[in-house]
Design a protein that fits this description.
The chain is of the alpha+beta class and 141 residues long. The chain is 56% helix and 14% strand. It is built from five helices and two strands. It has a two-stranded antiparallel sheet. Strand 1 and strand 2 form a beta hairpin. The longest helix is centred in the first third of the chain and has 26 residues. It is extended, with a radius of gyration of 20 Å.
């Protein structure tokens, strides 16, 4: 551990105009504050993007489960489905991609055919391309 980062976030709600100040603390082994700030922003960008998709596509916030195990299992299934929908869009390579909500509806209407389509898209070259992680390019200052 090289440092403790204190991150203060000032937020204003779009509708109610209510202001809040949130303080978060992070332990980091990174050497510079710029690297730490980049990693913190990247983490929350991924987190917020995932939460937004889970809520808008799979309506996860409306899910009312009292059993913790059932809720965990449902969450895992939702994330798996969301990943499948995103991969299908990437693998088809169409310019006008199908929305994730539309893909969800297609799976609901005809699960067998959509699953066949998803599995046929996974030829070895396309699959390798889909799972290859490419590092994000950062601009040097």
């Amino acid at each position: 551990m090289n440092a403790i980062v204190c991150y203060r976030k000032h937020m204003v709600h779009n509708v109610t105009a209510r202001e809040t100040l949130e303080t978060r603390y992070y332990l980091t082994s990174l050497g510079s504050i710029e690297d730490s700030a980049y990693c913190i922003r990247a983490h929350w960008e991924v987190e917020n993007g995932l939460r937004w998709h889970l809520d808008t596509v799979l309506m996860e916030d409306q899910l009312m489960l009292s059993d913790r195990t059932a809720a965990l299992n449902r969450s895992i299934l939702n994330k798996t489905c969301l990943s499948l929908y995103k991969r299908m869009n990437e693998l088809t390579g169409q310019k006008g991609r199908t929305s994730l909500k539309a893909l969800r509806k297609c799976f609901g209407w005809n699960f067998t055919d959509m699953m066949k389509q998803a599995l046929t898209l996974l030829d070895p070259l396309a699959f390798r391309r889909a799972v290859t992680i490419t590092p994000k390019q950062t601009s040097s200052k």
